[in-house]
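Ticket #338: bound-state structure for protoporphyrin IX containing FE.
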Amino acid sequence: MAAMTMRRRPAMEVVVVVVAVVMMLGGGARAGGPLKAHYYRHACPEAEVVVREIVTARVAADPAALPARLLRLFFHDCFVRGCDASVLIDSTSGSSAEKDAAPNGSLAGYDVIDSAKAVLEAVCPGVVSCADIVALAARDAVSFQFGRDLWDVQLGRRDGVVSLASEALSNLPAPTDNFTTLRSNFAGKGLDVKDLVILSGAHTIGVGHCNLFGARLFNFTGAAAPSADPTLNAAYAAQLRATCGSASNNVTAVPMDPGSAARFDAHYFVNLKLGRGLFASDAALLDDRHAAALIHDLTGQDRFLAEFKNAIRKMGRVGVLTGDQGEIRRNCRIVNSK
Ligand code: HEM
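RESOLUTION: The complex was predicted; output attached.
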């Protein structure tokens, strides 16, 4: 009996190994490992140059607005189903897509991605994912004013096939979020408090609409007289009140980093410390000791750029599809038909 057991053990082990391998390989889509630098080197050597040339030409024509738009597009892509270009998919008659959710109402830059995709489909059809184009476009647009790449983009993302407005609503942080909510939202994406602080530094460029911070300006305390959020610098609050006119003004937008609105620099953190963070979610970063210590440490430009490079690379890996997961969309707005 004992001898039989001993003879059977190797066979059992083989079964266990086979089952484990089948489980690893099975279940449909497989992850193909990590993203890689120059992933398209062989399959589409022109890929990175094509995106760079198109983005650079478009940013040269609109340097004030487009870098912020393309950077935010990348963030909103990565925070819903990972960086899978699900933000680019159009709604269909039966399904409202991410881009039609309220927090994405002011997203822009889709046409730049479409232009790059159209050229890439002509040069090397079915090879370069929309998700990678979004990641490259954000880097190229923000880097424009520096004349050098601010970070390297690892590639090999594949495109998702699902896009739901309801998921954009539940996954994107809101400008009214407090620190605890922001921290847990980022943690849900595998990003820590440092990433939250550094990535919020993206608000060094771009604009915010009055209705998204209006509640901080008008009768904040509930008193009849005009009263602002006490964490807002009083002069800044008065200036914003005059510009916005009302808390519900959804037409007027103001720079998020007054004094250095066009530069991608550490000045956002200078403003934060002066009570000039535009959104409640910006000001909330000072409510946590760890986050506040980082902010106080972060005013140097070189340090900010070095930290931003690490954090945005990390954000660019959130929930990515690789290997044979997802697909390479032919048109970034439409899932391929089977
Ligand atoms: C921490 C949580 C965040 C919240 C609550 C938040 C919220 C917002 C809001 C409400 C706006 C203004 C939208 C409008 O008025 O139309 C905005 C703009 C922007 N956000 Fe964020 N954001 C966050 C993090 C980030 C991150 C991580 C990035 C990028 C890495 C980013 C990049 C931008 C950019 C560049 C703009 C300006 C867009 C433009 O001018 O078109 N944000 N954000």
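RESOLUTION NOTES: The chain has two domains: 47-171, 179-315.
TICKET STATUS: resolved
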